[in-house]
Design a protein that fits this description.
With 129 residues, the protein is α/β, with parallel strands linked by helices. The chain folds into two domains: 6-62, 2,3-Dihydroxybiphenyl 1,2-Dioxygenase, domain 1, CATH 3.10.180.10; 71-129, 2,3-Dihydroxybiphenyl 1,2-Dioxygenase, domain 1 (Roll), CATH 3.10.180. 16% of the residues lie in helices and 37% in strands. The strands form two sheets. Strands 1-4-3-2 form a four-stranded mixed β-sheet, with helices on one face. The longest helix is centred in the N-terminal third of the chain and has 11 residues, at 17-27.
Length: 129
């Protein structure tokens, strides 16, 4: 059996790297650790961290195909982030003109959660601690 310690990072291909950088930093609060242009691939790579932990890589590629999101397709379903207060988090997102689904209660944990999307319609969940 493979011994995995933790998730190292999540890679996301963006249709508009500037729009996605703004969303992940200004809306979600990630910090840019490093940003490079990879000339051989005509691609930007942006490394993002949260609370000092490297978590997400944003990539740009010329003409990437659209992501099938709804109806749900095989593959990564969504990203989920823990928040302390979901009502405050939803209010902040809505103040930034981010459309958020109604808050739901997880039937197994009785915790509150909801979904919204990044600029490329990647589903993002916030789950109350």
């Amino acid at each position: 059996m493979l011994k995995i310690n933790q998730i190292h990072h999540i890679a996301i291909i963006c249709s508009d790297i500037e729009k996605s950088k703004k969303f992940y930093t200004e809306i979600l609060g990630f910090k840019i650790q490093n940003e490079v242009f990879r000339e051989a691939r005509n691609s930007f790579k942006v490394d993002l961290s949260m609370n000092g932990s490297y978590l997400i890589e944003l990539f740009s590629f010329p003409n990437p195909p659209k992501r099938t999101s709804k109806p749900e397709a095989v593959g990564l379903r969504h990203l989920a982030f823990e928040v302390d207060n979901i009502v405050e988090s939803v209010s902040l997102l809505q103040s930034k003109q981010i459309s958020v689904e109604p808050i739901r209660i997880d039937q197994f944990t009785n915790k509150k959660f909801t979904f919204f999307s990044d600029p490329d319609l990647l589903p993002i969940e916030i789950y109350e601690k």
